[in-house]
Amino acid sequence: MASDKQDKQFVTEITPQSEDFSRWYIDVIKKAELMDYAPVRGCIVFRPEGYAIWENIQQEMDRRFKETGHRNAYFPMLIPESFFQKEKEHIEGFNPELPFVTEAGGDILEERLAVRPTSETMFGHMYSKWIKSYRDLPVLINQWANVMRWEKRTMPFLRTSEFLWQEGHTAHEDEKDAREETMRMLELYRDFVEDFLAMPVIMGQKTPSEKFAGAVDTYSIEAMMKDGKAVQAGTSHYMGTNFAKAFEIQYLNRDNELEFTHTTSWGTSTRLIGSMIMAHGDDRGLVIPPKVAPTQVILIPIGPPKMRDMVIERADALYAELKAAGIRVSMDDRADVRPGWKFNEYEMRGVPVRIEIGPRDIENGVCLLASRLGGDKLTVQLDNVVNDVKQLLDDVQKGMYERALEFRASHFHSVDNLDEMRAQMEEKRGFFLAGWCGSEACEDTVRAETGATSRNIPFDPQEHKTTCVACGEAAKHTVVFAKAY
Ligand SMILES: [Zn+2]
Predict the structure, then answer these.
(1) What letters, b where the CB count within 10 A reaches 16 and e where it falls short, cover 174-200?
(2) Where do the Aminoacyl-transfer RNA synthetases class-II family profile domain residues begin and end (predicted)?
(3) Cα(73) to centroid of ligand 1, in Å?
């Protein structure tokens, strides 16, 4: 076992969350080797440990997209500047963030090419060629890609100039069908984030000032981080016929009349990695939900040198058994590293379950299971170990969701006016439920006075507020306000 001194030394390399949450976050993701800063400002390298998390997210989400009838395609990264001029709100929203290629092969290009920030325009252009008749609809395409937005303030995974994401773009015969798709994908995101990443989210509609540039309606899921701030974990947009009109996506309907399609788009990104870390991590490091963890179980053989061969032989068999059962297991049998150091190391890396096995355990036909969530170690029979490990992984997944739900409940406040909101925000972190009259001026006032922005208008608020938090007039909506990443 590690001495207390060794434990403390180890943990002091990570800034405590209560001291400086952002510092804690950077310490942890660097120490766990998830990322590193790239030479270009605002860009990061996804190191193998970090990319493996993304691959697991991608795999499961992709499976769910395909189950709901979507197919993948790949569209080019470079988009002619003129495409952005076609949808007025879209260009106004994205122009400040667009990087352009202006020169290639030694020549100045006739038309500047934008590095895609999102691909509505490119999909719109291609859909106008492909869609001719109602028989061609709906078109349900998703793309896994990188995108670029020239961000001024960056935070690894949460906001970087280049990031990885998926963007779904669909075209439909009418509003009803397109709106159903918008909600289907929002619900898919909610279920994925809650079930797979163990993060409870609030589903709702964005206010007009926070909606996607060019959308009719934008819906989001919002998650709470451990510093009480919000992260928008996914969005789904109903575009109406805005992009269809800009790109002439027209089709012959069932009465042989020419009509514009109704389109949607929806996206999630590598922000999910950052938000998962900020929602679950603790002062010892990462805590990764078993369903997404690249390593679910770390197996650590223990014992004096003279027993080593015997222990490793049994541990090897155990490793093979767990692996065969579909569990993502690793073994650390390095002889020159103390077990206590290893315990700390894999806790810091967020591995959900640790197995310790030593000579006496083998003699008794048992091994020890430790959960990343803490609590007593479990002694389990080696001949039933697969079931017990699966059960513990399940318990950790559920325990993480419940813990996050409790955290959110204890950081969820209800306020009636600005004075109250300001006073509460000085001493409390979290989300603030408040009434809103619907005017953008009142939203601006809240932002200016408190630093909180409207996150969304929840579909299912715990309480319906009756007066606007800023002006005191009758409230049209109940809104979640919070500081956000
Ligand atoms: Zn108001």
Answers:
(1) eeebbbebbbbbbebbbebbbebbbbb
(2) 41-289
(3) 44
The whole-angstrom separation of Cα 361 and Cα 351 is 22
CA distance 387 to 391: 6
Asked if the model's pLDDT at residue 475 lies above 80, the reply is yes
**153 alpha carbon – ligand 1 mean position (Å):** 30
Ligand 1 center to residue 314 CA distance, Å?
Answer: 68
Q: How far, in Å, is the centroid of ligand 1 from the Cα of 367? A: 62
What structural domains does the chain harbor? 21-78+120-280 (3.30.930.10), 297-392 (3.40.50.800), 412-482 (3.30.110.30)
Helices 308-324 and 385-410 sit at what angle, rounded to 10 degrees? 70
Tell me the C-alpha distance between 466 and 473, whole Å: 9
Ligand 1 centre and the CA of 229: distance in Å?
23
Q: Please tell me the distance between residue 475's alpha carbon and the centre of ligand 1 in angstroms.
A: 7
Cα 472 to middle of ligand 1, angstroms: 6
Centre of ligand 1 to C-alpha 420, Å, is 15
What whole-number percentage of the chain has pLDDT above 90? 93
Residue 414: count of CB within 10 angstroms of its CB: 17
Tell me how far the alpha carbon of residue 78 lies from the centroid of ligand 1, in angstroms: 42
Q: What is the percent of the chain where pLDDT is above 70?
A: 98
Angle at 284 between CA 282 and CA 289, to 5 degrees: 55
| Centre of ligand 1 from the C-alpha of residue 266, in Å | 30
Judge whether 116 and 154 are in contact, CB under 8 Å: no
Q: Kindly give the distance from the C-alpha atom of residue 479 to the centroid of ligand 1, in angstroms, as a whole number.
A: 12
CA of 445 to the centre of ligand 1 (A): 9
Query: Residues for the chain: how many in total?
Result: 485
**345-351-352 Cα angle (round to 5):** 135
- Ligand 1 centroid distance, CA of 439 (Å): 6
pLDDT in tens, 401-417: 999 999 999 999 999 99
CA-to-CA distance for 441 and 204, rounded, in angstroms? Answer: 21
Q: What is the average pLDDT across 188-215?
A: 97
Q: Are 211 and 457 in contact (CB under 8 A)?
A: no
φ, ψ for residue 469 (rounded to 5)? -65, -25
pLDDT tens-place string over residues 371-396 = 999 999 999 999 999 999 999 999 99
